[in-house]
Design goal:
The strands form 2 sheets. The protein has a 6-stranded antiparallel beta sheet. It has a two-stranded antiparallel ribbon with strand order 3-8. The relative contact order is 0.18. It is α+β, with helices and mostly antiparallel strands. The protein folds into 2 domains: about 10-45; about 55-175, no CATH class. The chain is about 30% helix and about 20% strand.
Amino acid sequence: MAGEPPTERLRVNLAGMFIALIGFGLLVVFATIALAAQDPLWFWSRFEERPVRIIVYRGGQRTVFEPGQMGYAELAEAVRASLAQGAVRSSGIGLSAGSLEDAYGLYLTVEAFFDRPVKLHAGFNTGWPTQMLFPITGRHADQPIVFLGRDGQYMANGPVLRTVEPLRDALYALGFAP
């Protein structure tokens, strides 16, 4: 039609919009998990901390390992290596007073103590524990669970690790075969 200005055609970059939408979706998922886990590095399974004291309980006997003692370096590295494999999921399991007493008195159990709060990165909140309990035999040993604690109290819902085989191997090498 005469006298009307030519109309401009609107150009839409569908590929750019699709990439932006996917990027925004990934950001929302990442941020949601980070907020729930209270850890922006939830995806990082790295763990470099070493315990300052490790206690091995076996059948009512208690053996303490501290830096400089024979066997400490192997156990400390095994604890670190087991935790560095990462957590798979939360267990939904807690330690009752009876279960803790049995872990100390009846079964093969490893307890690691840290001099400051440490962070076990996971897609769920693991808190900032200063002590960890690894059941090697007995109750709760059917899964590679680590119970996290602080001030002598263990929290429920301990993480299920990918493996505790480094810890089992170190215990075996030190004569603590189950």
